Amino acid sequence: GIQVEQSPPDLILQEGANSTLRCNFSDSVNNLQWFHQNPWGQLINLFYIPSGTKQNGRLSATTVATERYSLLYISSSQTTDSGVYFCAVDSGTYKYIFGTGTRLKVLA
Amino acid sequence: DAEITQSPRHKITETGRQVTLACHQTWNHNNMFWYRQDLGHGLRLIHYSYGVQDTNKGEVSDGYSVSRSNTEDLPLTLESAASSQTSVYFCASSESVDRGYTFGSGTRLTVV
Lengths: 108, 112
Fold this sequence. Notes:
Chain A is an all-beta fold and 108 residues long. Chain A is built from no helices and 11 strands. In chain A, the strands form 2 sheets. In chain A, strands 2, 4, 5, 9, 10 and 11 form a 6-stranded mixed beta sheet that branches. Chain A is globular, with a radius of gyration of 13 Å. Chain B contains no helices and 11 strands. Chain B is mainly β. Chain A binds chain B through residues 1, 30-31, 33, 35, 41-45, 47-48, 86, 88, 90, 94-101, and chain B through 31, 33, 35, 40-45, 48, 50, 58-59, 88, 90, 92, 94, 97-103, 105-106.
């Protein structure tokens, strides 16, 4: 099956800093999502982005499907951005495979 | 407002008991999914359903079952709970492929 690798596994930032999270996948995918899991465990869908670039406030994402990777950019980070960021991919069967996540801590 | 709710939020059960975790959504989504989350493994798919009377096995389905008798509910049953099934369980639903998932708040299950 498809393998999903996320990097870095852990990231500590000072408030106001920018960061880039990466998701590599081992095979062609039809669908890709980014999620944020907050410190209380709630999973929130950030982007559905099988290809191209999307932006939502301070967050943006880019997927280059032909090169099998996606990037999540966080600008001007805030303490509320802390948590775990997951990338999930689907090869067309509408069953998403999740990476193991990037744990982000933003310090005030 | 439409929502997806899981119950209970926390449960402790004994090895060998049958346990059912509830998932109820009012989005009228056809697609529903159960995942478990464990440290070091991310989220792994247990079972999923594309509509009423449709159920399918995911990558870690052994020891679990689901049924789909209506659009709103996809209960997850652990036939005989084992300590290896101690985990956080998430239910998700989706209207279509291009809308992404909406997750419930999760159920933390401890098997002692």
